[in-house]
Amino acid sequence: xxxxxxxxxxxxxxxxxxxxxxxxxxxxxxxxxxxxxxxxxxxxxxxxxxxxxxxxxxxxxxxxxxxxxxxxxxxxxxxxxxxxxxxxxxxxxxxxxxxxxxxxxxxxxxxxxxxxxxxxxxxxxxxxxxxxxxxxxxxxxxxxxxxxxxxxxxxxxxxxxxxxxxxxxxxxxxxxxxxxxxxxxxxxxxxxxxxxxxxxxxxxxxxxxxxxxxxxxxxxxxxxxxxxxxxxxxxxxxxxxxxxxxxxxxxxxxxxxxxxxxxxxxxxxxxxxxxxxxxxxxxxxxxxxxxxxxxxxxxxxxxxxxxxxxxxxxxxxxxxxxxxxxxxxxxxxxxxxxxxxxxxxxxxxxxxxxxxxxxxxxxxxxxxxxxxxxxxxxxxxxxxxxxxxxxxxxxxxxxxxxxx
Length: 404
Fold this sequence. Notes:
With 404 residues, the chain is α+β, with helices and mostly antiparallel strands. Among the domains are: 21-136, 3-Layer(aba) Sandwich (Glutaredoxin), CATH 3.40.30; 307-404, Tetratricopeptide repeat domain (Serine Threonine Protein Phosphatase 5, Tetratricopeptide repeat). Helix content is 66%, strand content 6%. It has helices at residues 2-16, 29-39, 53-62, 66-75, 87-95, 124-135, 141-149, 155-164, 171-181, 190-199, 206-213, 215-222, 224-242, 246-255, 257-278, 283-297, 307-323, 330-346, 351-363, 367-383, 389-403; strands at residues 42-48, 76-82, 103-107, 113-118. Strands 2-1-3-4 form a four-stranded mixed β-sheet, with helices on both faces. The longest helix is centred in the middle third of the chain and has 22 residues, at 257-278. It is globular and about 65 Å long. The termini are close together.
């Protein structure tokens, strides 16, 4: 009982912590421009939508933190605009090609863009770093676009432009210009790799041919795991979009038959999961899902995907936990426990993975394991100021009550 009270106290403490966060003004963009000019501030706009879950998490967990508020209130005049409902939001969405959320937009007092960041992060450090970059007149979006328009074709500038998502320029042309005109040695720099890794997905791109030709050199440079991940991501794109094109599939298989097999197994599993989700009472689709999952998650060496693999494991395990009662399929839950334990070993300090393992353990009657791992999940989530703490505490209270 004492531990429950302690966690409840911690949650209450977090809820009351740092009420002086980012001060958002309820004014129009035109009014903000006038005030920003008078106060010599940059306009910061939290671009969100009503359905965006990460947006809600930022609003609830990050913007209220006093360090974030201290920084943003000092340097920025802050607005929060719904990109689908607010008049100014709709205008800015069209003007700057905003399609993903959350997006942070920074404007000067004339309404001209200074910086833009899609998916700015989920921690207070991420959000402050994004604001700091907006203040950096040598490296923010405004500086980047000026250098590109002046003919600059360095990898970091192109990466910054690609990540802005404004995309008024032809990105493929920028990337091809860069790789066509740099030296052989420059193709093996970290900046060149980052540009290729994040923004080249076309197997007909000349740089992809170069990458395959020099695969060993790239493996020595950045590691086999990262090279495999790059090839796997490209394969998944083509498998999802061109799986009926036998020539394309054969080409992928010839590039790397093992990674092609991994991609196909994932595709079949993902397709089965989506099919079952359409009809959650269909036992035939449920059995197909289990079959495809066993094949996909049993591939030898697939854990090269590291964090991605852990999240895939966790997602499947929670899915099984939510639906196994439809068919009283405890065997499926036992297999999910096995996979969940593997995810815990690979990601010991990830609170939501521990929470999944705790719930499955509880349903299988292992109350000690459930209490142990849910307690650890609460500790980790509390340290991260996560919104999940409340639900974790509720689960822990249930686990303990059943164990008494």
